[in-house]
Design brief:
heterodimer; A: 513 residues; alpha/beta; Rossmann fold; 2 domains; six-stranded mixed beta sheet; B: 385 residues; mainly alpha; ABC transporter involved in vitamin B12 uptake, BtuC; 15 helices; 71% helix; 0% strand; disordered N terminus; disordered C terminus
């Protein structure tokens, strides 16, 4: 395979149609040897389809694929493997109860007379892990290790198979900020060693920091390829969305009013271990302010919200909502007393995925006289109401109120939840990672909605793992570390670096309520 | 063009797909049954399969055929109730295999009220509802509050119920046989009224209001599931337990109520059979009556829809009754059960069939839209598909 071409892989004029839509319309991507090439686009822009064509999962109707300047046919994923194309999927493909080593060699085991030769494999894995700075414990089981280490295992899997072209499908969606930094370094190392990397993402900051070039797709169309050193985030987002996007939310100053949510010495047990997940936490959220709980994933934020919303019983403490004691109130009572909750896991908690959109939009209100009478659902009223919300909140789906929510895109599912929770006109809106996994356009939309709630004089409690979001949306920041609130900050007077120290547990200060 | 569009439109309708899939299951089930008949005795296999399918049409006279159609309906009604019991619970994500035991409890309660306490039929039915319901309730409480799997506790209760009922009815059995006393002799007031229905079936006195009531109950179940707040809640609980909880539904209470209703439905089923006087209970029986288990077949064959289940219940009972006309010296009458069993196995196939059909429709659609685009488009580069 003498490389007489500048490019490791080229996809030229690819067109792929599905009934009713053109997923890729004459798209050309050329990946240079040893570069990190970002593929940027909103959800549904055709990134996944394009990668599926490269991986042999779909066949393009038009266009050709070249490897090292020679045209190749990729009819199935085995062909792709043979050509040295490897992929780290967004959702890892690992056997949970196997060790890291077993997972890496799975399918390409070295054997002698049918006996596994793990020592050789171990040697090769340790060499690779050393060379590229991929820290893993070969003997740890997948179920016991962190998400970051699972991802490194996936990367090692590709390297172990001597893949030259590495595809990373939204690799940072599941990582903590520290792990993201680490991954960026790993990717740069890989490129330095001559690997060619396709990096699929919609996070502009990451693309700016790691990529050499960036190709942009919008609604299946190829918009262009730019050199990262000649561009900036604003230009990229304009290319991706097709209009100017406000990357940093703007809001006017507002003096908070009365206390809406008052939490006193709340303790919530953990499902994972014997320790309490939330320890003796006290704070207030007032009218017209967005209070943000910042912290690294798994420091008790989830359980804090479970305690507030009633999904989990608290073991001690007191919760007051608009002056009413709701410590022992049921979930329904809290909801009808003016609490709305945009849950962390929209598939598990937020939606009945097999119900249609109309039924999901009344999930918190179906029992109200407006939507039911004498135990019967008023279907027409439900659908009218749902049509109204769909219009008002611009929820896009194929069949309107009749669409089964499972078939909708993540961004629109989230919009549906937000519409439902905001339209209840709550005193307190709890939003847990409301922008996770969404593209820039949807994030902008959601931030605007949160700020509109604040401006209308409601209280908003936002739980976020994204420091950028924390800094730009909130009026007040509480940092959580190991179940405790370790600091309170004014976003105007702090820096991400300072917050990072508190999030990592390196510093703490007493918080007074 | 328009014609093909129309057919694919009909084919993509989920109801039509369910019906097609059910028919396919039936055909394959009968075919496998036929092969079994061939293996047992090749000579009579043709006549045998026809006999099973003909059931009461075996009788040349119209009057006799009608009479035996009546008998099939008498047994189809309790089967439908058991099927509805399983289906109602299934919508809430529960597999109510305990329907068999709830049916037994209902039988014991209504027969005891009728024969030992000499109650009128309406009280007997209420007793059956209550007994079946309580059996369901036990399963529900164990499931909700102690997280005991409903299949395990249901199967256990099937046997507990069987032997309890055997003991309970031991006092009201005939002296010379293990069967309970004849209702018509002991307490005619406990027999379900026929409201003149027997006239349509050549004076088959076993045809009572049970048959139309069963159909009405199926329709009510359909309405409850699809149109009421309660149906909305139990279906949400069944398909997305966490989302139901998040929205403040009392999912534990809903599970208990669902299983109570499921049990009550099976209990009514028993009353619908034993209060006609068509059969007596044998207090020495050592296996749980198959009615509850056949309900599983009927509900899946019916595409998990109460209306579909009406027809499916009739069909299953039709071939089961047909099996009894076979020459017992050559063929075991269980051949009908065998065919039903094959059909249950094939019900999993309903899903595969739907997936396949939808995949085919999508491909056809895709091809069509590609053609369309190629025609409309500027250039066409040798269609790679």
């Amino acid at each position: 395979m003498a490389g007489n071409s500048e490019y490791a892989i080229e996809m030229l004029n690819i067109t792929k149609r599905f009934p009713g839509i053109i997923a890729n319309d004459n798209v050309t991507i050329q990946l240079r040897r040893g570069e990190i090439h970002a593929l940027l686009g909103e959800n549904g822009a055709g990134k996944s389809t394009l990668m599926s064509v490269l991986f042999g999962l779909y066949q393009a109707e038009e266009g050709i694929i070249k490897k090292d300047g020679v045209e190749v046919k990729i009819n199935n994923p085995n062909d792709a493997n043979d050509l040295g194309i490897g992929m780290v999927h967004q959702h890892f493909k690992l056997v949970q109860c196997f060790t890291v080593l077993d997972n890496i060699i799975l399918g390409v085991e070295t054997t002698k007379h049918g006996i596994l030769q793990k020592d050789e494999s171990r040697k090769k894995i340790l060499e690779l892990s050393d060379k590229y700075g991929l820290k893993v414990d070969p003997d740890a089981k997948i179920e016991d290790i962190t998400v970051g280490m699972q991802q490194r295992t996936e990367i090692l899997k590709m390297l172990y198979r001597d893949n030259e072209i590495l595809i990373f499908d939204e690799p940072t969606a599941v990582l903590t900020p520290a792990e993201i930094d680490e991954l960026m370094i790993i990717m740069k190392n890989l490129a330095k060693e001559g690997k060619s990397i396709l990096f699929i993402s919609h996070k502009l900051a990451e693309i700016m920091s790691v990529a050499d070039r960036c190709s942009v797709l919008r609604r299946g169309k190829y918009i262009g390829t730019v050199d990262i050193k000649d561009t900036n985030e604003d230009e990229l987002s304009r290319m991706m969305v097709g209009r100017d996007v406000q990357l940093v939310a703007t809001k006017e100053d507002k003096t908070p009013g009365n206390v809406i949510l008052h939490v006193e010495n709340m303790t919530v047990p953990s499902k994972l271990h014997h320790n309490n997940a939330v320890k003796n936490v006290s704070f207030d959220v007032r009218e017209g302010e967005i209070v943000c709980i910042a912290g690294i994933d798994g420091n008790g934020q989830t359980e804090l919200v479970y305690g507030l919303s009633g999904l989990e019983n608290i073991t001690s403490g007191k919760i007051t909502l608009s002056g009413k004691d709701i410590t022992n109130a049921s979930i329904r009572e809290r909801s009808t007393s003016g609490m709305s909750h945009i849950p962390e896991d929209r598939h598990k908690h937020g939606l009945v995925l097999d119900y249609n959109l109309g039924y999901n939009l009344v999930l918190q209100r179906y029992f109200e006289p407006a939507f039911s009478t004498m135990g019967f659902l008023k279907k027409k009223d439900i659908m009218d109401y749902s049509d109204k919300l769909i219009e008002q909140y611009d929820i896009r789906s194929s069949l309107g109120s009749q669409t089964i929510t499972r078939s909708m895109s993540g961004g629109n599912q989230q919009k549906a939840i937000i519409a439902r929770e905001i339209d209840k006109n709550p005193d307190l809106l709890i939003a847990v990672q409301p922008t996770r996994g969404l593209d820039v356009g949807a994030i902008e939309y959601i931030h605007k909605q949160l700020i509109a709630q604040r401006d209308a004089g409601h209280a908003v409690l936002l739980v976020s793992l994204e420091l950028e979001e924390v800094m730009s949306v909130s009026d007040r920041i509480l940092v959580m570390y190991e179940g405790e609130i370790v600091g309170e900050f004014d976003p105007k007077k702090t820096t991400p670096e300072e917050l990072g120290l508190y999030m990592a547990g390196a510093k703490r200060k007493e918080v007074k309520v | 063009m328009t014609n093909s569009k129309k057919t694919s439109g009909i084919l993509s309708n989920p109801t039509v797909q369910s019906i097609l899939a059910a028919l396919l299951c039936i055909v394959i089930g009968l075919f496998v049954g036929y092969i079994a008949l061939l293996i047992i005795n090749p000579k009579g296999a043709n006549t045998a399969i026809i006999t099973i399918l003909k059931n009461y049409f075996t009788y040349p006279s119209k009057a006799a055929a009608l009479k035996y159609l009546g008998n099939t309906l008498v047994k189809a009604a309790p089967l439908l109730m058991c099927a509805l019991s399983i289906q109602f619970c299934y919508q809430a994500g529960l597999f109510n295999i305990g329907a068999a035991g709830q049916y037994v409890a209902g039988a014991g309660a209504c027969l005891y009220c009728a024969l030992a306490l000499h109650m009128p039929w309406i009280i007997c039915i209420l007793a059956a509802i209550l007994a079946g319901g309580i059996f369901g309730l036990i399963v529900g409480l164990l499931k909700s509050y102690l997280n005991v799997n409903e299949v395990i506790s249901g199967i256990m209760l099937n046997w507990i119920g069987l032997y309890c009922v055997n003991m309970l009815l031991n006092g009201v059995k005939e002296v010379a046989s293990p069967y309970t006393l004849h209702l018509s002799a002991e307490n005619p007031s406990a027999i379900l009224p026929s409201m003149g229905l027997e006239k349509f079936f050549s004076n088959n006195k076993y045809v009572t209001i049970a048959v139309p009531l069963a159909i009405i109950i199926a329709i009510i179940i359909k309405i409850v599931l699809s149109m009421t707040v309660f149906g909305y809640e139990i279906r949400a609980t069944g398909i997305a337990k966490d989302a139901a909880r998040y929205s403040g539904m009392k999912e534990k209470r809903n599970l208990v109520i669902t299983l109570f209703i499921g049990g009550a439905l099976a209990g009514i089923g028993a009353a619908f059979l034993y209060l006609t006087g068509y059969e007596e209970w044998s207090v020495t029986q050592s296996s749980v009556p198959s009615m509850g288990f056949n309900g599983i077949a009927a509900t899946f064959l019916g595409g998990l829809d109460p209306i579909g289940t009406i027809f499916a219940s009739y069909f299953i009972q039709h071939i089961t009754s047909g099996g009894s006309y076979l020459d017992k010296n050559v063929y075991p009458s269980q051949i009908s059960d065998f065919i039903s069993a094959i059909i249950i196995y094939l019900c999993g196939f309903v899903l595969i069939f739907k997936l396949y059909l939808n995949g085919m429709l999508r491909k056809r659609e895709e091809k069509k839209s590609n053609d369309g685009m190629a025609h409309n488009g500027k250039k066409q580069e040798g269609g790679i598909s």
